[in-house]
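Deliverable D5.2: sample structural annotation.
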Amino acid sequence: GEDIFAIDTSVIATMYPDLPEGTTAAVYASSGALSDEVAVFKAPDEAGAEAIEEQAEQRMDDREESYSDYMPDEADKLENAVVERSGVYVVVVVCGDSDAAKEQVDALFQ
């Protein structure tokens, strides 16, 4: 697979511009044109986590639209992105095998 890299905090703020105050985030993304991304957020409270979940889903929709014309395979990854929330945590995974990713995320949240 492609290498993914840790994203600097200042860049996370451009990817997810409306994170609630007090959110901690770790985001990893592929370099270049691929859509692969793994993001973990810890919100200050459950309402914050809900807001992050909505923002993440919107980000996936927006990215899917921008990829759909010129990289349909990447758009498919985004369409099947895993966005899961449990308590104050939100996990986002964009990869080629969303079923496996969802199983891993669900196992984490148990």
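Annotation notes: Strands lie at 4-6, 24-30, 37-42, 82-86, 89-94. The chain has a mean pLDDT of 94.
The annotation will be released with the project's public dataset once the embargo ends.
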